[in-house]
Structures are given as structure tokens and as C-alpha cells.
What does this fold into?
Amino acid sequence: MCQWDMINHLAGCLFMSIAERVLQVQQQIRDRAQGRSVTLVAVSKGQKPSALNAAYDAGVRAFGESYVQEALLKLAALGHLPIEWHFIGPLQGNKTGAIARHFSWVHGLERERIARRLSESRLEAGLAPLQVCVQVNLSQEPSKSGVALQALEALVHEVALLPGLRLRGLMTLPEPTSSTALQRQRFAALRQEQERLIRLGYDLDTLSMGMSGDYIAALAEGSTIVRIGTAIFGERNNT
It folds into this structure.
């Protein structure tokens, strides 16, 4: 999909229902996944529980939240549904306990200290290991979260040893760009890092990459989890 097609695609979503948007994204995934299993995580931060209900009714089973207090309210409101909750925001030390107890996945792990706190809290809660992805800062933006490539292997080694965590793979959030070639370059780099780590003996099966503006490029480079917000819910409702 070229840049102009993507712009038209996102603009068209503004006039569709949540269910219609979900179906459209699911179709895009099927068309481009090349037969592999891809999980759609609906990024629901800033959305009301009714919006999540609509997405759930359309077939979404995984939702991504970035703010712990907001997420806990939604977990309470939607606790009757078998939802898989993914935490995809910055990880603060004072929130690790709540995250470890209430979420199934964490995307964005970038510090050993936080990993240890998550592992300890998960074990204390008596829960199965928390599924985690290490975030990699491929574009080397100072303001962007994620571990640098040169420090990735050391962090992966430490996280893989923690009993309360199950290291599943890598995650990235590259710089915004309208260049499909650059999008694919960033995502290909993450895939290549995953392949390198697998050759070293790490059991990694997940590439969490691709959002509303670049998930087509991410799918082309092997993404297994796409994190979609605007293309499903429209602009965030913070009221």
C-alpha cells in the first residue's frame, strides 16, 4: 500500500463503525500475513468501555492499554469478557505490581531493573509467567523508549533468566515517516535481530511491530503482533 493509499484508507475509516474498521483491518492482516498467525491488539487507551465492547463484538480479543489507572477501570467494567490485556506504555517502577497482576503481556521492556520487579510481582501473585517483549530503539531517537541495538543481547540474556517472565520476542516503535521504504527498513532490522538471537539459542517467536500508519509495512517484514488504535477507534477520546 503506497503512502496515498494509506492516507485514503485512514480517512475512509473515519466514516465507518468500529465493527467495520475491525473487519477491514482483519482483512488487511489476512491478505498480507502470508499464512502466519498475527495477533491484532486494539490500542484502546483513551477509549470508553463501550468502544472496547464494540471491538470485542467484532472479533477483537486482545486490547492494549498504556495508563494503569485507566486500564484498571476497564478491566473492572469488562471483567466478564475473556480479554487478553497487553500493557504497551512506558514502564514505571511504582506500577510494576499492578501491571504484573492484571496484564497478560508487556510490550516495551527496556530495563533489567523493571524486568526484575515484574518477575518478582508475578511470582508473588502466583500467576503464570508474564509474556514480555523487549523494546528496541531502532531509530536511535533520544526521546524514544527502547534499548539500543548494542545493548540488546545483554538485556535479552538477563530477561530470559527471570522465572516470572517469559521472553517472547522484540518490539519497536520507529520514528513516524511517510516513506514505506524506511518503514520496511526499520522493521526488517528488528526481524534480523530476532533471527540473530534465535541463532544464539533464544526462543523468540514474536515481533510486535506496526501501528495504524505503518502496519502494512510491518506485516510485509514478518510482524506477528500489530498494535492498532486509530484505524479501529478513530482519534482518542480523552474526555
Remarks:
- The chain is about 45% helix and 15% strand.
- The first helix runs from residue 3 to 13.
- The chain has a mean pLDDT of 92.
